[in-house]
Structures are given as structure tokens and as C-alpha cells.
Amino acid sequence: MVSADAGNIVQFDNVGLRYGSGVETLSDLNFSLAAGAFYFLTGPSGAGKSSLLRLIYLAQRPSRGVIRMFGEDVVTLPRQRMPGFRRRIGVVFQDFRLVPHLSAYENIALPLRVNGVAEADIDQPVREMLEWVGLSGRANAKPPTLSGGEQQRVAIARAVIGRPEILVADEPTGNVDPEMAERLLYLFEALNKLGTTILVATHDLHLVPRVPSAQLMRLDKGHIADPTGMLRYPPRRG
Ligand SMILES: Nc1ncnc2c1ncn2[C@@H]1O[C@H](COP(=O)(O)OP(=O)(O)OP(=O)(O)O)[C@@H](O)[C@H]1O
């Protein structure tokens, strides 16, 4: 039997998030993200974009509701299964979050080392990633000596070297110039064409038309505005 969420990589049912005892930061979120699609998440400052992304990359549990990732309920997921789920989700941050005393090469290799990949199987994928993001010549450079755009490309390479099924990026172009922002989007688009689901939170609405296939999710005061109904499940077929 085909379940209602077939084809969805993320599904939120009546999800709410409250920090402390205040009002809910996110309320009544009901949406799904289709595997292989490209989404922009926009909304004013404080709307809850980063909070929503944290729920998706499993850094935060909701206060209520059900979140399914890859078809499984992650709210009740046993703790020991979390690392396995996290490996399927790549994350890119506005402030890069690279390890400053490690070279670009070592930063990109880090997820493989953490996951216990044999040393002999590390060099080739890291070199391929460096080439893909156009930084083969900067392999030995440490993050403080790299430009913002270069650091973000290292961060993207690190996020995708483990071949995640979904890549979540929180304002990834916020600290780079417009030309570099375009270049980063091009990388996200290329990944998407290879089948990776992409979710990019951004203030910058200029980026949206740059990806003609992308769908727009707008968050306002903790609610998702979905005027076209595109985000509802079951996903549209054909
Ligand atoms: N860890 C936290 N503890 C308490 N409140 C929080 C926490 N994280 C976020 N908030 C609050 O939740 C609301 C939404 O914040 P969030 O960072 O998710 O919004 P955002 O849309 O990403 O904003 P911005 O675009 O400015 O980054 C804000 O009012 C913020 O102060």
C-alpha cells in the first residue's frame, strides 16, 4: 500500500514550537516537502525561519505535533537512531561554522572522519568536493585566511560530502557579495539536479527567481502562508 506521505522527505502535522513559557514561536505548521524539490523559505526577521530549520535538522524538538523525516516520526525517534538520521541531512549556516584551526581540506574531510570512513577512502572524495566548489588551489588554507565566499563554499562541500538526501541552508548568502551569492545558488541548483532536496531560508527575495523550479514558502508570525496550496500533501502527481 502506498502511504499518503510517499514522495515526501519532510512532513509536519500540527507542529508547534514554544521556547520557555511564552507564546508559540511556530504554530499549526502543516506542510510537506517533496523529495527532490527546491524550496526557498522567506519571511520577516523573527518570523521563525531559523527555528523551523532547526526542527528539520533535528537540533530542536517541537512542543507539539508530529514531524516525519524520510517517512519516520522523528519526535519519538530513539536517541540512538538520531545520528543516523542526522547524516541524511546536510546543514549550511550563514556564519559558515568552520573549524578555524583546520584547513579547508580537513574541514571538508571532517564528516567522513567522524563517521569512521577509512583513511584510504577520504582523499578522493575530499579532492572531488574541493574541485566542485572551485577551491582545489586553497586546500591547505585555514578559514581565517579565506574570503567569506570561499568559506561558504568549504561549508557547502562539508555539508554535502556525506551525500545527504536533504540540504538545509540558513541564510547561506547573508555574508557574501551578490556575485558570490549567485555562485552559491548555482551549487545548490546543481545538487538539486542530482536529486538532493534543497531548503534555503533567505531574506533576499532577489534570489528566488534565480531558481525557476523553486517553490516559495513564506513564514509570517510563526505560520506558513501557502496561498497556492502547493505545500499541502499528498503532493501533486505528474
Ligand atoms: N533558543 C531560543 N530561545 C528563546 N527564544 C528563541 C530562541 N531561538 C529563537 N527564539 C525566538 O523565536 C523567534 C523566531 O526566531 P528565529 O531566529 O527562528 O526567526 P528568523 O525568522 O530566523 O529571524 P531572522 O531572520 O532574524 O534570523 C524570535 O522571537 C526569537 O527571539
TrEMBL record:
<dbReference type="GO" id="GO:0005524">
    <property type="term" value="F:ATP binding"/>
</dbReference>
<dbReference type="InterPro" id="IPR003439">
    <property type="entry name" value="ABC_transporter-like_ATP-bd"/>
</dbReference>
<dbReference type="GO" id="GO:0005886">
    <property type="term" value="C:plasma membrane"/>
</dbReference>
<protein>
    <recommendedName>
        <fullName>Cell division ATP-binding protein FtsE</fullName>
    </recommendedName>
</protein>
<keyword id="KW-0547">Nucleotide-binding</keyword>
<dbReference type="GO" id="GO:0051301">
    <property type="term" value="P:cell division"/>
</dbReference>
<dbReference type="InterPro" id="IPR005286">
    <property type="entry name" value="Cell_div_FtsE"/>
</dbReference>
<dbReference type="InterPro" id="IPR015854">
    <property type="entry name" value="ABC_transpr_LolD-like"/>
</dbReference>
<dbReference type="InterPro" id="IPR017911">
    <property type="entry name" value="MacB-like_ATP-bd"/>
</dbReference>
<comment type="function">
    <text>Part of the ABC transporter FtsEX involved in cellular division. Important for assembly or stability of the septal ring.</text>
</comment>
<dbReference type="InterPro" id="IPR017871">
    <property type="entry name" value="ABC_transporter-like_CS"/>
</dbReference>
<keyword id="KW-0472">Membrane</keyword>
<dbReference type="GO" id="GO:0022857">
    <property type="term" value="F:transmembrane transporter activity"/>
</dbReference>
<comment type="subunit">
    <text>Homodimer. Forms a membrane-associated complex with FtsX.</text>
</comment>
<keyword id="KW-1003">Cell membrane</keyword>
<dbReference type="InterPro" id="IPR003593">
    <property type="entry name" value="AAA+_ATPase"/>
</dbReference>
<feature type="domain" description="ABC transporter">
    <location>
        <begin position="10"/>
        <end position="233"/>
    </location>
</feature>
<dbReference type="Pfam" id="PF00005">
    <property type="entry name" value="ABC_tran"/>
</dbReference>
<dbReference type="GO" id="GO:0016887">
    <property type="term" value="F:ATP hydrolysis activity"/>
</dbReference>
<keyword id="KW-0131">Cell cycle</keyword>
<keyword id="KW-0132">Cell division</keyword>
<dbReference type="InterPro" id="IPR027417">
    <property type="entry name" value="P-loop_NTPase"/>
</dbReference>
<comment type="similarity">
    <text>Belongs to the ABC transporter superfamily.</text>
</comment>
<keyword id="KW-0067">ATP-binding</keyword>
<keyword id="KW-0813">Transport</keyword>
